[in-house]
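Lab notebook, bench 4. The sequencing result for the construct came back, and we need a structural model before the next group meeting so we can plan mutations. Quick request posted to the team channel:

Model the 3D structure of this chain.
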Amino acid sequence: MIKNIIFDLGNVILNIDTKLSETEFGKYGLNNFGELYTLAAQSEIFDRLETGSISPEGFFAEFRNITGSDLPDEVIRHCWNALIMDYPKERLELLQKLKPKYRTFLLSNTNKIHYDYYTEILVGQFGINGLEALLEKAYFSHEVGMKKPDPEIFKFVLLKSELVPAETLFIDDNRDNIITAEKLGIQTIWLKDNNLEKLEIWNSLI
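Done. Here's the predicted structure in token form:
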């Protein structure tokens, strides 16, 4: 029996598209963000940003150094946030329906820059005071200092919220994250088509 549901964020609740950041960076002369991302990954600044071990300001400075650009902080912030698209209203309504009946959680690889931006969207467009208002608890990688698919972040969530793995459903669009969860005995749904609100499982749970 499912008593707890853990949701991923990107392309599960919130629509994202990294190509949009690539396009925006291109407008400022940084062509092919995919290569830049790979280059930056060699210094692990994206990993460090997602685990909170580098500040946004430190990230901006190191990004400039790696790319050889002189882009101001706010331009980098704008381009980096461009990948964040929208919250489909149906998904937010789904979370609101589930919360009274199940213990619901968020487990997201994210960072402070994106967190501030998608929280601002949620408040501005829907009057909802952050994702935390829609769930029992939200776990963000940059706050807990770990990220998926590291088993330790799953163990942390299970322990912190006192969840029984067999009673817990985890929904994510990343196969590696799903594999880790399954090894820990958690029930899973690998969301391949960005169609959270259309999953048949809701017919039996709501």
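The first strand starts at residue 4 and ends at 7.
Will bring this to the meeting.
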